[in-house]
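Entry type: protein chain
Record version: 2
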Amino acid sequence: MDANAPRLELLTRRLAECPPEFLAEPRLGDSAQSQGVHVHAVITDLMDDLGGPPLSPVQAAKFQASGRKALEKRNRLRLALIASWLCHDGYFRAKPVHAPAILVFLSDVLPPLAKLTAADLFITDQDRREELVRALVAHLGLTPRGESPAQAADRLKALSTVERARLVRETQKQEAHARKLREAMKRKAARQAAAKVQRE
């Protein structure tokens, strides 16, 4: 057993104990009246604590929401706050080599999750907590303590809302294709029947 591997139970417990500050509403919009947490500032602080480089303007922009579509980014920003609490765990702070990958996780891996699941569920729902932790651990190329890489991959796949959504889309696509084939066969049969009647 790798003593340096992350312990899932500790990380999922950390998520369950996420403090109110990380559950607050993110700042939406850039007007003087806009209120809420500056998510890019939280991520900047996280990177500093992890020993990573400061955010570039382009990277910081991924954690801001302005313009007409600001409200659409609300859940993604809320999930980024929750995940930043998770990533601030002592396990990751002791391994600054992970800082760049954690930034990619927050900016690029989380958005598909945020499109499918309300951010609060990653705190309140046991499976969603485990999914978020496993997604992070897998993204960092780590294997949870007590598991083989294959076991970890299978468990994440079973929990993954993104994978589930992909399977649903694939099934719907296959069903639509099968429906088109059935309709085409019916039309062909109808044409053949009509031709037979004409011949007779």
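Comment: The chain has a mean pLDDT of 86.
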